[in-house]
């Protein structure tokens, strides 16, 4: 959640992967791209596959990240095949969460407005037109945004500057011989030598191998990917043997299309050579692994790739062999090892798979595997395995998309795809994919129109996502159809969910009587069918409705029943909502201390599972409690945090709209007591709190009177310490520098400087810059004595 909220709260972290190998050469290109970024909104790196466009873009982004305080992000598009998901992919890469049904482009424009930011769009060639349209839309509306794209051809928009990324320079055959100790100044040779050293630590350029090395770089036209693949072969071959086999392979493959560029033929030849060096079973594994998108784990390899020539117990050895040959890239994520094919290598394997006539069969096996994973996650969505299942689904999101796409593309598989999309309901909600999940379900509903249990389930699932987006019209429409279908087919469990979400709509429309009746019918059905998920969802909402009506005893009893169900199943996420609900009622009864404790317990859970909406409700209740305790500075600051949270979610209290009256009462009372100027200042300080500090502030255990007296002193009676950056800024304030001068001196934006100064004033309890200067001077004299 920290990465998400950092962007939500405007910290602008670097969303770039760490470099794991050295970056070689490209001094001229680096300087040119940086220069162009200072004056151009869009810079596109073009060139043949394998030439190093992506690596150059990442190095540029790393080098210039301090010049973009609004954030620097990498959006990897190689695995994205559906152009309709482009904007969603960009939003996900920027960790922007929005539950509303608004177009994603509108959300991007809103969140990036006024921010000096850089977006790296990597591998645009297969989505050229949609990338061009999106980039053009963004840069026309956002003058402070820069886009650095990589593509095999330009985007073709007016604001674009292009840089053709050429292969690395290598010694020409007719050049005078270069001394061995100077060969490393040649970028292609240096790359080969560095990658060779990674394979053979004792490798070095010598008089004996210098000619073979330069010949290899020459034969490979200086293409970085080709050079790296050739260097890997030193695990099994000498430099001379690599050169000999390259010569043989190139002569064999130059009979290909003469319309293709020589560099493309060279790259294909090298990959083909690597392919031929594999055993027959390794080639099969390479082909079959190419059916995955976004990587695979060992279980997936065993399940999808075994059979028809590969025994299941041989899969591990084959995967290991392909990792050693640098065909598969090994990656470790959260303690789990995954394998990935580089994009060019994956496409080569996919072509071989298609030529074998096995592509359709492998696609079906791929879909079936991820269908089972989705079904298992649905079964484990309520219990101790929930977090692990949701984490796995997030890692497999690209494969899940591919499986759904294949299902919807096969007339006889649409119902299976729709059922799978419903199994992924919690993934859509917790993974910040609500709009995407709704699109998958809507797409299936549009095709699978026959009355069936699958359609009935999809209707209420679609309604839940619409309610979370605060889109009641479509939600009511599909619930009405869902009710008729469930009653017609005798689907009592589905009818219970229809009643649950119909009740939620009734509460939103100000009809608690109807809502309570429907909730009670739903709860009875969920109890009868032993459905703990539906029961807890219903009990939480029924408790809120009873609380809203002032029925304290029933509200508490229902919330405690929900807690008991969660605890009996060792379930945390729904437990957070039960704690939240109980806290709302106890706050209404005046038990403010216990209510605050419950909300903080709930907040800790919601933070751990990345539930920004649940976190928002917790912060709401804590703000109301602060106002009840007359801690109005705290209430106002929490309202400021909430302003940022609800803008990120897309709407305030979506799904629990009846609670808005408490928010409005808190805001009006706090503003009245503090006065508008002080209220606005406190709210502004809340909006500027970084996410981690906002949560820490919400969870702090301070006495009620401390808020009125200013910030609590640290142990020993001293004022809270400043961070190193805050101290640096305080010293510049003491020297009399303006915000603009401070921003210039520290190479940060003026807005960032202003935010730091506001935070210093808030932390020290001061109201003026003069107080900062006086305090710093006193501290300096005290330290000197």
From TrEMBL:
Record region (Disordered): 701-721
HTH luxR-type domain span: 715-780
SUPFAM superfamilies according to UniProt: C-terminal effector domain of the bipartite response regulators, P-loop containing nucleoside triphosphate hydrolases, TPR-like
Protein name: LuxR family transcriptional regulator
Native source species: Microbispora corallina
